[in-house]
Write a structure and sequence with these properties.
single chain; alpha+beta; 7-stranded antiparallel beta sheet; 7 strands
Length: 231
């Protein structure tokens, strides 16, 4: 893995299938094809005070989730060993072929509309997501450290590992220092990048629902309302 970070001003246009298949998704919804993410982790249900910030990054139709590097726990914290200068990690998830395509074409677009294999994008940052993604919408929401531990396990369970039990890297990401990793989850119109983000938030103990979530706005509206309540 490359030992350098993404820096301010390198806001690449991440291509998420959901940003180009809105019509297909709308048709699917019209057929009652509701979103439902696969979750390998039970949500945190305790009432420990929430003192740890998470970041929800929304750019166009795509969402990602940012976490302070020192808050990660369990096996996924091994990312810190490869990228010790990272102060934050941003995680995104999407359909493998389309998400990784440099110049996606019609074939990639059609492929993104059917159930397919997926990847996790990991972006290491030296700056807070609110700074690096200044041209996107970034929401900050507080959760408990116990909730972060559930999220850490959730992220790890979505990653496929190699013979050394490390995340299996499959390519360079669109940002400096970012990488794509193989994922065991299945991308579909019922389980988009935004469904995944909503489920990731839900396992932290936040009252966020992933049911029926397809678009970024459905995640953003829920998180924005919770952030207002926390003020």
């Amino acid at each position: 893995m490359a030992r350098f970070m993404a820096v301010k001003g390198e806001l690449a246009a991440v291509r998420c299938p959901c940003s180009y298949i809105v019509l297909l998704v709308t048709l699917a919804l019209a057929c009652s094809f509701g979103g439902c993410a696969w979750s390998p982790v039970e949500p945190y249900v305790g009432r420990v005070p929430a003192h740890q910030n998470l970041y929800v990054v929304a750019s166009g139709w795509h969402t990602e989730i940012g976490i302070p590097a020192d808050a990660l726990s369990g096996p996924v914290a091994s990312l810190r060993n490869a990228l010790p200068d990272a102060r934050y990690f941003v995680f995104g998830w999407g359909q493998r072929d389309y998400y990784m395509a440099r110049q996606p074409g019609l074939g990639d677009l059609v492929g993104a509309a059917i159930p397919a294999r997926s990847v996790v994008l990991v972006i290491p940052l030296e700056q807070a997501p609110t700074v690096f993604f200044a041209r996107a919408s970034v929401l900050t929401i507080a959760v408990s450290q116990e909730g972060i531990a559930r999220l850490s396990q959730f992220l790890w369970d979505y990653l496929e590992t190699d013979f050394q039990h490390l995340p299996r890297r499959v390519g360079d990401g669109p940002y400096a220092g970012s990488s794509f990793y193989a994922s065991g989850g299945t991308y579909s119109l019922a389980n988009t990048c935004n469904t995944w983000t909503a489920e990731a938030l839900r396992v932290t103990g936040l009252p966020v629902s992933a049911t029926g979530v397809v678009f970024a706005r459905q995640v953003v509206d829920q998180v924005r309302g919770l952030a207002v309540q926390q003020q």
